[in-house]
Specification:
single chain; mainly alpha
Length: 80
């Protein structure tokens, strides 16, 4: 099982580093590159650089609040 855990950890680390690198390049470096450069075809428009993290944050917050609500309801029912 240790090998499987290590593989999953490596995969998650690789995905996280890839997303971080892509987003950092997209937000920090790409605005300084000419708009007719070929690299722009590999990235979404700049508007999405704000919309995607905001949507992800709101979704995460909704799931977190729902989870906390369910845990509070269960603990209240156990207390009775």
């Amino acid at each position: 099982m240790e090998l499987a855990d290590r593989a999953v950890g490596f995969l998650l680390s690789f995905i996280s580093i890839s997303i971080f690198t892509y987003y950092t390049f997209w937000v920090i470096i790409l605005p300084f590159v000419d708009s007719d450069h070929f690299i722009h075809k590999y990235f979404l428009p700049q508007d999405y650089a704000i919309l995607i993290p905001v949507f992800a944050g709101v979704t995460l917050l909704c799931f977190l609040c729902t989870f906390v609500g369910f845990v509070m309801l269960k603990s209240k029912q156990k207390a009775k």
